[in-house]
Amino acid sequence: MSRVLIVDDEDGIRDILRDILQDEQYTVFSAADGIEGLDVLRHHPIDVVLLDVWLPRMGGIDVLKEIKANYTDTEVVIISGHGNIDLAVKAVKLGAFDFLEKPLSLEKVLTVVKNALQIETLKKENRRLRNSMVHEDEILGETPPMQKVRTLIGQSAGSDSRILILGDNGTGKELVAREIHRKSRRAAGPFVEVNCAAIPDALIESELFGHEKGAFTGAVSRRKGKFELADGGTLFLDEIADMSLSAQAKVLRAVQEMTFERIGGEDSITVDVRVIAATNKDIQAEIKAGRFREDLFFRLNVIPIQMPALRERAADLPLLLAYFMEKFRPSADVPVKRFADDAMAFLTEFSWPGNVRELKNFAERINIMSDEEVVSLETVRYYLGEVTGDSGYEPSGIDEFLDMGLSEARENFERRFLVRKLAENENNISRTAQDMGIYPSNLHAKIKKYGIEIER
Ligand SMILES: Nc1ncnc2c1ncn2[C@@H]1O[C@H](COP(=O)(O)OP(=O)(O)OP(=O)(O)O)[C@@H](O)[C@H]1O
Ligand SMILES: [Mg+2]
Q1: Distance, CA 179 to ligand 1 centroid (Å)?
Q2: Interatomic CA distance for residues 136 and 130, integer angstroms
Q3: How far apart are the CA of 172 and the centre of ligand 1, in A?
Q4: 328-387 pLDDT tens trace
Q5: What architecture is the 310-388 domain classified under in CATH?
Q6: Which CATH architecture has domain 3-133?
Q7: Which of 138, 173, 175 to mutate to test ligand 1, by most ligand atoms within 8 A of the CB atom?
Q8: pTM to 2 decimals?
Q9: Given this chain, do its domains 3-133 and 144-306 carry the same CATH topology?
Q10: How far is CA 384 from CA 91, 185, 322, 324, 374, in A?
Q11: Residue 392: pLDDT band by 50, 70, 90 thresholds?
């Protein structure tokens, strides 16, 4: 159901508009001035705003600017009196979708709202498509270590050889694995990723090889494992060194013979899978310590690719930073932010323990949080401090949301945001609500919606 907000200081106009819009099944909100209107926007996603250009307290043009800057998905239709058509025209130049003149033709109101909604839907769809197509970054970097990586990708992609990618957190291991798949003859086949560190030991076998119905408690139906799902494509075994020794033994056999059985099954299943593995651990040390099987290492390590840490290729930093600053720019008509000289020097010297992922998160934060067109050293320090501080807080950017639809992503985010804000405010509802800028009743509703447990 689409949501429309009416911002007009005349009670009569608000009432009439509300009636006709509600008749069309829209959810209608209304506000008597701009400040109130912006407050509604903060608490409810709104698709279209009908905005009087002439308002007390805060002028319609300022309200419009505020909406365009903060709610890219919201369309604004200006309502203008006879005397101020010029303001309406200005508003359209500033990004309003259209304007309506008083006295209002109710028929025209409905048409314009409908058109605005259509545009809004198209915009969203467009972005969804764009995200799903170019959701990955290109592999950037011109320094010798990155050139070497690129050469290795080129040489190995065409063959079916197994590849082991080594490197610290956030150096681009997964990016490289996906690129190899894309360039291989298996490109049309599936790319299946397994994060070995995230799967409890008891489940890893079933995850990799699948199970038959009734194989164990909870196995209510037959399920294919990742090896089977990757048939004809690439299996990416991420964080391979975090797997238990017993799981390693089973993977060894599967990798060697491309044959395995589902748990509880008798038939051997044979697949055609290319295996790419990755780890951020020092694998030689893991072998020495007896935590990683040497024979599995030799199987996987046919072609090793070592990802350089960002500080080992600091000369690539400006290139990467420029790319991410452009990528996270709020909209195409906002200029890309630049960095003051001392800020840039600081960034180049910085140790980047989280490597490219940290740099990417940093660029995203700066774009969301800072208004400076030329970002100062102070701001850089502040946001780097927050990103790398040892508060135990893990920055994550939006990567993890990219495979979700908009509403799923929003809910996911909202839930986590609530949990954290509640914790920060010791589960005090009114304080948390105030902190988040919403009404306590609204917070209660959300807590209930997401089934968040409040301990006192
Ligand atoms: N050379 C690069 N050029 C552009 N983007 C990059 C590059 N390297 C990494 N990235 C980006 O940085 C982020 C982290 O990369 P990726 O997930 O591949 O790292 P990783 O080595 O798998 O990290 P982890 O060990 O933490 O899982 C991704 O968003 C990726 O697109
Ligand atoms: Mg990874």
Answers
A1: 12
A2: 11
A3: 3
A4: 988 888 899 999 999 999 999 999 999 999 999 999 989 988 889 999 999 998 888 744
A5: Orthogonal Bundle (1.10)
A6: 3-Layer(aba) Sandwich (3.40)
A7: 175
A8: 0.60
A9: yes
A10: 38, 41, 17, 15, 16
A11: very low
